[in-house]
Amino acid sequence: MNIEKQIGFKAIGIYIFIILMIALALLYGNKLKQQIHHLQESITTQQDALMLTHELVSETGHLLLQTAPYLNTQDSTLITHFEQEVHKIDDLIKVLIEKNDTSAHELKQLSLLLHKQSNNMRSLQANLSKENPLDYFHSFQEQLQNLEPEFKESTHVEQDTVIKTGGHKKFFQRLREAFKAKTDTTLIIYSSKTDTLQVLRPDSTNILSKVDSIAQIAGQQYEQNIHNIRFQIDQFIQADREISAEISNLLIQIYNQTLTSIQNTINQSEIIIVKNYMMLVSGGITVLVLILILIILIIFDVNKGKRAKEKLRQVMDTRHQLLLAVSHDIKTPLNTINGYLELEQTDAQQHLEVSHLKSMQNAVGHIHALLENLLHFSSLEQGSLKLSMSTLNTKHLANELQAWFTPLALQKKLDLQFDNVEDCTIQTDVLKLKQICTNIISNAIKYTIKGWVRVVMEVKNSIFILKVSDSGVGIPADKIKTIYQAFVRIEANNTLSEGSGVGMYVVKGLVDLLQGEITIDSQIQKGTTVQIEIPVKQVNRQLPQGKKKVVVFEDNEPMKKVVEEMIKKLGHQVVSQDYNLIITDMEMNKLSGTEILSSHTNMPVILMSGHTDFTTEQALQLGFAGFLPKPFNIDDLRQLIGEEKTQEEDSFWVEEDEEIMEVFRQNAIKNQQKLKQMLELRNFKEAQAICHQMLPMFAQLGYPIEALKRMDLSRGKIYEKWTKDVQAIIDIKV
Prior knowledge:
62% of the residues lie in helices and 14% in strands. It is α/β, with parallel strands linked by helices. The chain folds into five domains: 1-147 and 208-308, Substrate Binding Domain Of Dnak, Chain:A, Domain 2 (Up-down Bundle); 151-200, no CATH class; 348-538, Heat Shock Protein 90, CATH 3.30.565; 549-652, Response regulator (Rossmann fold), CATH 3.40.50.2300; 658-730, no CATH class.
């Protein structure tokens, strides 16, 4: 199993583990929520019970205080109020039992004691309400006072008597003496007479005995009642004390039980909180440890993958560097061969010799195209291909392509036509656009046995359109999409031409990089039409027409001479005054390109720069009329300033000019000596500036420039191996 799959499985494992943990956390959280809700309800219930207990204590205490007023007043309404309060407390006790059943027994005992107290008060009231015997006696006394005694007639002799009695006597004594002889009376008779009288009947004497009996009974009953009442009051007071004490104890027990229940609930909630906290902490630590273990394993695999990727990258870089080295090694002699071929074409007198030289030159161009395909293929695979914007004239591009492919078409007796080519200047990545056009036209010629190849090149609404049609063998409809794959070729067409199968792969990659579109319409044995549409920026540059008077600002003397020779080869004039066009370097010792631009506001200025990250768009935004990325050739310069020679153009090759080469060698040796000094001083900034000056000419002449490029691109940012790069530049033999 490869590293990517291992990492993928472990990542999936982490996701699954996290999902499980989330599910468990949700379940546990739901359970915890229920527990907390239950505790909240329990605490609320206990709080309600505590409030009710407070109310019960208050009501009971207030009720017990009502017994004393009753003993003082014997007011029966107090008993009624007492019983009502007892019923109210009974209702409160029922609610408390529902809230806190742990005190149900004590609450029931409290209710019984209160009812007992109520019964005692009722019993005492009943005794206090019994009939008083003295009341009966007083009633009988009133009846006696209203009684009229019965009399009978009798003869009575009346004598004058003097009756001497004792002191004043009470009613009962007088009543008794009315029926008894007076022992203490002295009767003195002076005279007498006989008279008939009414005499009280004898049975009236029974009243006295009855009155005595009633008085005795009433007194005894009264004394007994008073004794009973006193005894019952004493018992009531004693019972009241006992009941009050029991009630107080019960209330204390109930209150303490309520507080204990609340405290137990609080303790239980604290235990649950601590337990949940410990479970969460332990669970979280466990999850973190497991995730960390998986992450460590993934990091280990990632590092392992990085090492493998780095090793692969090193292999790819080595291959890419090999391709670059081989291409540069091949380009240098090819450039030399091509330069001499151009010179020989100028001097050749016979048409046969010219055609041979043209064939040789086309072969060299073909090798160039193959090398560019190879380099672009490698860069696309690495993902390191970047755009480098510059300007291009579509008319000049069409002329260049036509000059290149016409000999190939003539060899196969094909009619190569370039139609509707507009004379338009655009901004794009020129090298990549040329490679796209070259590959498509090359394929059209390769796979056309007889007939024609037509090329249409135009710019509409800032869209560059290349349409290449042929009368070739065509492509099967089911194979069109496959031709964009690397090393894929149509089997039926393999016999028509040799190839690597990377041409259309490179075309597709470059078109995508330029944010364009490619469409293919093909019919078997009828031909193929390939259309490319790439967004570009049209440039309206006001350069002087006709032969131009050009001044060159460049502090690198060899580079300045090369540019001036190119200008002369294109039929223009190099001057130091009365010029109408300026070509300047971006960075010089005394002046900069922007300063020259500012001082020549009414004159077109073309900028040269060796900075690979500087683009045509940036130059145009600054106000320059054009941009030449170093290194550039005479064709690049022709695209900008045009050509005024009418005869067959002379070829330009730097190596044929001994004066330029000598100046170059002297400057190169001088710069290498400066670099050696900067290396000893570890002065990176000055070394980088020297490398920036050296890069254009070294690139122009085909010398190794990778170290120079790295130094130039670093620009103020010291990198680890800069000393090795500087030493490699010093070791270049010029």
